[in-house]
## 1
Amino acid sequence: MTNNGNNGIHHVAIATADIKSQIDYFNDVLGLELVALYWMHGVEGAWHGFLKLNDHCSIAFVETPAIAGIEHELGVTHSGNAAQPCAGGAMQHVALNVDTLDDLLAMRDRIRSRGVTVIGPIDHGMCHSIYFAGPEDLSLEVATSAAPIDGRAWIDPEVQGLAGISADELERYRHPEPFTPSNEPIPQPDFDPAKPYPRGYSAEEYRRIISVPDDVVLAKFSETTPPVLLED
């Protein structure tokens, strides 16, 4: 397996106060098929929607009642466009992929045909991109790369130095250490609040959550039945 098994994005989840408007936009303007819309598993009052990019990759939306009450503040909650800042950890922009430059130009024309303005294409050397906006101040891009990105050409030594990345660290980043799973699962490590962990829990609550064995989590929290049962 390449990249230790990582081989693409399964879905990007975007918060929304109006899931219908997002579905309509991504369906009409970008031509994406709605493939799932259901009560989000384990989250009271939340809806989850998936629009297909390919058979294994989707744009997903999450609507909960609380989202409508959260104000947009450019530079904090939203970037506003792909060149502006927002809070660390927030989605600054999302770039969708097409296979060829012709596909990119066709997507530009489709977007414009829906009355939505779009800038580009711009040639970045490693890709061509077009830029536009979506509902709720989403910053969006569609891009295409003619060839895989070559790190020998596209890692700037000046930026490497400004980021505090040493030569040894760069070598490690460019050649990630492979991992071979053992015959026995690795046990859950002790909770260390200095390391990243999902927010919204107290430290004690999260300790209780991670103390639950994996097989119990799988048995107790899995929900595998779709909302519509299909006949054979």
Note: The first helix runs from residue 19 to 28.
## 2
Amino acid sequence: MNRKVVKAANILIDIALSDDVGEGDITTDNIIPEGTKRKAIMVAKADGVIAGLPIAEMVFKKLDPDLKWNVLVQEGEKVKNGDTLVEFEGSYRALLTGERTALNFLQRLSGIATMSAKYADAVKDFQTVILDTRKTLPGFNKLDKYAVKTGGANNHRHGLHDMAMIKDNHIEVAGGITAAVNAVRSKVEIGIKIEVETTTLAQVQEAIDAKADIIMLDNMDNETMRKAVKLIAGRAKVEASGNMTFERLHDVAATGVDYISIGALTHSVTALDISQRIED
């Protein structure tokens, strides 16, 4: 994980533990003697791709800095139902108090990585790259996008600050695609990419003429996308977006688009089933 992901994880873990533990774990703290140590494992209860083990470790080490953590699988590794992911040892209180928070992070991120791997694999025979979107859980932008990359897909822009995305509302206010592109280009730093959302071939042509870096084909049928790719002819990168179900991926990639962006990678993810077990 890079520095920005670690920083975001630290903030989110503090919030999560504050929400869940509050003034203390009144069950564990009144049953488990202070100073008791135990061993535990985490086990996959479904097939998938793992992401977030370092974050789970961070959760437990907030509660027990002396925790021993031994991972048995790597980030991005495919696992089977029943595989042991990690062995760890530390304060029994910490193992129980941190369990749900650690699993919440690990299950969500592994679910994202699993779906990302599935979608990326579906287009492996094409040049097309699967991208995420900004449809992330609020506050989880960096973690969700880390999980997407861990699963083998790629990141679109991380936020409003790192790429210009000209959509229909911007076009309407500016008075057209050309005016919108020119307005942005005259004010942003050199190197900032400009992407334009289009819904018709006429708009695609205007985006080409305006020298957009990326042209998004929004909610187009496959035949129209094929025509748009031919029209663009390599003068800009091409992104397909809107109603990108898993069943459509192969046919959309076959049109020749460079990217397919899919909000479902992060906004409709199913958490990967993982459990924690205390060892005797």
Note: The first helix runs from residue 3 to 21.
## 3
Amino acid sequence: MLRRSAISFFLVLVALLAGARTRPHYGGTLRVEIEDDPWQQPNGIARRLVYDGLTRMDSAGLPVPALSADWKADNDHHRWQFRLRPDAHFSDGTPVTSVNVVSSLNASCPSNCPWSAVHAVGAAVVFTSDSPIPVLPALLAGDAYLIALPNPDSSSDQRLLGTGPFQAAGFANNVLKLAANENCWQGRPFADTIEIRVHRAIRDQWLDLSVGRADIVEVPAEQLRQAQQSHLRLLTSPPITLLALEISDTGALANPPLRAAISLAVDRGALSNVIYQKQGEVTASLLPSGISGYSFLFPTDRDLNKAHELRGGLTSAQLTLSSQGGPTLQLAAQRIALNLREAGFNVQAATGTQHGDLILRTFALESRDPQSTLESLLRGAGQPISSGDPAPAALYKVEHEFLERKTLIPLLYLPRSYAASGRVRDLRLDAAGTPDLAATSLEGAP
């Protein structure tokens, strides 16, 4: 009897210790390292830690309340009213009002917005539009429409105040420090502070992770296989970053057949296999297959003979191909330039420029909803087209008509991935593949 009691006590003790080990802890400093700017748009890692939108995307990629408590549509989606939650304040204690929300939205979107006008009406923000906008709640969850308030005591990294779980607390020696916002409407985050070391090379990030100087580091898609072989503790999103080639429709490329020849000359398979180590999803569609279900209808095969036929000797002018990104994107641009020279184009890959006849760039998905995602991508490509009908056939028609212009050529969908140290608990990626650091805790934190 005594022995059974001792065993039972031991099992209970083990269970309690296991529970204590996995239970989130408050406190500590979470150390993050990245290559780029933490404030960049879209999806800079600091942005959603400091700022909130009227809505946000849940784990399924659907809009749920954030700074707005609820919303409703009138007049066949031509008018939307978002009622603000009464308990939300900016990090300096300023209440969130409809007036400062409208001011923030007008500053972040001065023109070509999804809406025609936005007004403050009591405790509500009202959007009106000449055309219906059925996906406005999902669009407002986007990074471009996060709400901020000008900071009268501003510095370079504290110029705007937010309502998020953290607030900017200083920047020195390439380290951005964020401090927990004790009065956040969502509740206090687990970590006391987050230190984000910026402009850090990937090899240095991985070294710091291995010796305990970093808790979370980046894993680019092209190095994901190496990270797996190195047994790093990984968290990887679905393919949600679109790599695409923008083609000018003016000057030497004003002729549509020339742009069509370029689209047929690019070898997507080589980009995926060689540059990105088979970690991407080859696509000729704006939406990935996991969202639309119809991406297979857009052919991805290279057709060099057809490209020569369409070009037909129409141009011998030199074209410039630039890239908006780091060394891997530049390497991909050089590969595409080689493809185009094989099709008879006189094209040169340029470095250090954001302009060109052709631009290789990425687009970030922020939702799993096909209609709002398509509209966001089209808006990001400078084409504010409303899909109107959420049916797959209608979305396919909108996408097909846009892609027939050959001004944007989808190439690959790539995942986002991060590696974490053993002391990091409850790390998750949001719908856009950005780490949700507000919900992350540290083992052994005081």
Note: The CA atoms of residues 215 and 316 lie 52 Å apart.
## 4
Amino acid sequence: MKKRKYFLSSIAFLICIYCLPVMAQKKYLISAKDAIKMSVENTVELKNLRLDSARQKAKNREITGMYLPQITGSAQGAHYLTLPYVLFPSTGQTEIYNVLSKEGVKDGNGNVIQPQQQFFVQEFSFVQPWSINAGINMNQLLFQPEVFTGLMARNTLMDFASRNIKVAEDKTIEQVQKAYYQVLIAKQQKEVLDKTIQRIEKLYNDQQQLYKNGFIEKLDIDKTTVSLNNIRATQTQLSNLIELGYASLKFSTGVMQEDTLELTDILTDELIKENLLEEEINYENRSEMQLLHSAEKLGKIDLKRYRLGFFPTVAFFYQYQQQGQLNKNFSAFRGSDWFWFNSNLIGLSINLPIFDGLQKKYQIDQAKIALQKTRNSKEQFRQAADLEHHASRINLKNAIINMDIQKKNLQLAEQVYQTTKKKYEQGVGNTFEVLQSDAELQRAQGSYFESLFNAVIAKINFQKAIGKLRG
């Protein structure tokens, strides 16, 4: 009994362990818009660009802080093991000559002896053994070219970071849309292919009965078998392609590979033709042009920064310092061993560049060249955008025309197959005609789905060209 309970417990445990990954799996029902939103939120490149934007915001605040008062405090304590001395010349009088002079004693010439002065050097120290210094310094920058232009560039730098994110988002939107519709169309194609396999399998089964009854030859069954094997091989390849497409889409949207995606959009000819070729190009709607505008503004500010380099740097400063000195001899006349005093200093500093070896001149020349390059890039982009718009419009027209033709061919191939099938069922046709019409139907289906995908890609490219990729 115990062995049985242990066995059942082990089975239950193994079942739980096996089911844990299954239970952890998630299923996502997503449309193309959902896929775009998830990709924009989860793409690592975009996450890093947003972090760069946040970093630039912090950098802007750092530059702003440079124009706020800079206050520093300082303190120092020191003890002289040996005091530094200064030598002072001094004179002194000999005491004996002073006494003789007072008494009026005369020398051999009858003159009163005068006091005699003696020259000597005396050591004196202005420093006390112990000293303490403490102070506060405040510096207020009034004008500095680099900081001034940095303040001017703050909003432009944030705008540049934002435009850079938008360019990357547009690339992501374009890629995700194409990946989404590629999987969606492949799924639709596989559904049609599955029905084709069912149709050929039914024909194969019918032929088996006819062969047993002696109405057809073994050759007819062999032809159908070859056709069925080819279709199954195509089905396997298409299934693998769909699986790979799902894996790529999961990676783009930030979904775990073990989770499940289910695409909810339904793609039709009418959806592709909706709002077709109604809008003209607007350069300002293109994120690339907006990024170039921001780059041009930064170039102008950079040029201004070097031009302002000829201006002086002006700063206001204030210093307060308190100093204390310790000497036991102070007690005799101050009542304390410590002597304290303080100082205050206020001023204005101006640094004027006079000659820097023409460095600023050449820096200005470089900034002008960089600015002109940005303007050239803007003009080049306008030309490229015109070409892209013109080409995408033509490609979209051609894709729509081809899609309509392939749809008509598909409808015609279906009619031919149905007619051939009826003739075969009535005993008028043969297996070769059925397989041939079925192969033509498969080719028509493949051509239609290919034209459908090309039309979707052409429409996405056209929307990108006119700056309407986001809808």
Note: The radius of gyration is 47 Å.
